Amino acid sequence: MSPGRKTAIAAGLTILLIGSVFGAYYLNTSAALASQGQTISALQSTVSSLVSHPATSTTTSSVTYTESRFPYVPWDTSKYFVAYVKNSSDGCSGGPCLTMNLREAFLFTCVKEAASQQGCTVQINSTNPLVYSQITLRYPYIFQSNDSASSWANCAISSPVDHPDNRIPTYCLPIGSRGFVVTWQLSPPG
Asked: What is this structure's pTM?
């Protein structure tokens, strides 16, 4: 056999081999593509059906609101509510606003200043920049009277212009090592 003929046979066998590999790959791939085409067609049909037919049933759910209360205050919470100095002065005049929700409480971050003789004076703003309330807080603070209402108090608030003896007993709850919230004892309505 001549070398040219051997080369021609080898080239022919190579072409047949490459053709069979390509044919097998094509047959495998075409089956997968046909399967994916059917899946896409089924999904399109489902989407079209959902778009053309509005929902006939509705689901109603209810949300329960739970009031956040701090776990410890030194008074009987079944007789007296717990209120907090609020982080906004919206709707209040002449003093701090109060809230029953701990999430709305003003976080005081002036621990060092509150322990000083002058106390910590803060300005609590509202959504209107011209409206605000200022309070001075002393914490810790021990009342010098025999008043039973103030026996549980560990801090006091007042207006910055008030006489130093005109302080309202409150209870401060530490929040971490750098802050605290002020609680207020409220009598239930009625």
From this structure: 0.58
